[in-house]
Amino acid sequence: MIKIVTDKAPTVDVASILTAQEIEGIHEYIHHYPQARAASLDALKLVQKRNGWVDDAQVNAIANLLDVPVTDIEGVATFFNRIYRSPVGRHVILVCDSIACYLTGYEELAAELKSQLGIEFGQTTADGRFTLLPICCLGNCDKGPSVLIDEDTFGPVTPDQVAELLEYYP
Amino acid sequence: MSQNEQVLAAETAETPRLSIAEQFARRKQGQAPSQLNSQRVPIYGDKATATIETKPLTWRLAHHDAILDLETYQSLRGFEGLKTALSKAPKEVGDMIKAANVRGRGGAGFNAGLKWTFMTPPDGGPRYLICNADEMEPGTFKDRLLMERLPFQLIEGMLITAHAIGATDGYIFIRGEYIVAAERLMAAIDECIANNLMGDNILGSDFSFNLHVHTGAGRYICGEETALINCLEGRRANPRTKPPFPQVSGAWGRPTVVNNVETLSNMPAILINGVEWYQSLPNEKGNTTTPGTKIFGCSGLVNDPGLWELPFGYTAREIIEDFAGGMKQGKRLKAWLPGGASTDFLTTEHLDVPMDFDTIQKAGSRMGTGLIMVVDESQDMVPLLKNLEIFFQRESCGFCTPCRDGLPWGVKLLTAIDDGQGKVGDVEKLEGLTRDLWLGKTFCAHAPGAMEPLMSALKYFRHEFDSKIVVPAVEVDAETSEWAETEIKKVMSSMVSSNPAASSNSGADTGSNNNSDTKAGAEAGNNTPTSKPSDVK
Question: Is the model's pTM score more than 0.90?
């Protein structure tokens, strides 16, 4: 038997993986571009909202929906800093580690966050509350050191304010 | 030296910063991160003198903290520039902007109007205008403010540009972290659509244009225009080969122009006030001819970091002292980056160079985004460079080998040197990298950008790198060490007797002399046992 190698995504039942709202949202994005593929990043971001990360099935479903190879969607998903392909905590703390925040004391801030959460960069707390990651310049350099928690940018955040800041994110 | 001391002195106290609770409260009231700044000198300077003639980019902020609805924007001469543009033929507008010489504010400083002329002529198919709002250059935060507080101005600038180049669709490529900015732009676009300022037959003319907001998800390389186009098309954001340039074959293979947020925000005022006015703006300082105003800024350990709209020609000293309130208490200026992490360091010597593309280039750096970052004397350049290079290493797209492998090599060397594990020759290897990752050897400008701060740090602060290199202790027997000592004494005495001028010269440049001493010492330490093999046994 001849095996035909194709780069098409394995056909999956998109409706069982993505919600109706997600599918509608992705179609909404497709309208903004001349080609469906262009919605890949938007689709990944939209789907990520549900669980905080994107699993294999979801990647496959997006590939089906946009009719592009699954490897292309995976390529996009793994390229970007803020698309997560493995589980993350309820809140993701992104600490700016670029030069302006380095000069204003990000290292002390990161050390304090690590010690209060008991995790290193790239890890999630045991209770699944926080994931801690470094990020490049948040464009908040006049108020360094800066952090981005979920969708909120804060700065300046000094080490003694860490406990107070974390309180806002149960 | 005494002049340099002035910059170092903290004349004003530090600006009080918002507490976490205050930050939360003000965000809850709907304020964007850029509205939480408490800089003492406002971005538009003085409220009384901030007009469309003096501060064309930010004068509206003197009246409102942010202009988020169409009515307010229109009450402040909003969309007047577009109306003027629509009364002219596209070519006329293009020629006007070309004559005005709006130098690209994204860092390259290329005449935007001239860039537009490289576009393939219209053939009836789609043509794209993309706004590069992927502001991720470390130390840069100007586009965030322009989008969060003046979204309509950017949209008007894009409409004018689209009319000039015959674009049918536009995209604002905004980085994923600028969440409020994206929301505000989308709301502004919706309001424009509802008021016939967007869509078909804008304001009754035959010009039609649709604008979309595309958000990224955090990759520095997306700021490179061809990588940005790949990302927009839904592909991995690897840069594309040039040529073909985007003006010929850009998004979806169609003619495309990519301009920075600030560049596009310049357009409305030029249409209202004219070319001559635009070119007269640098007369305020009189030391440069680059037309227009620019948003300059300052970050790092200064009293009052922030952004200020100024004509070209202000010096770094003026920006740091007069606007940013000088260095923080007890800090002294050591070096500064003129416009983001991918520009060369300059030192206290260059503080009086006017901030302009050509003058900063002549001083050995690039103006880049024009947002100064100051490094104070307490900073050790080795870990500082390590931080910079880790950033570039992480943000390499991984497409070409020199960048993908070379940048981590640089980080490894810097880490080793910083940890006291550096070997003799490591600093030279770093120098080698600055040559091997230079323009023409990599696919795009990412790695050369990473090399600029490294190259200049090695130029001005070489001794800090050298002093961290550990010369391995060499075990020698008594006979060899005795021989070495007499040899050294012989050489030393011959040097003193043959060249008495050498000793008087050495006083002039102690810095570099120290370097060569350590280096020579290092080499001697290495060579002694091997260079005299016959005597050892």
Answer: no
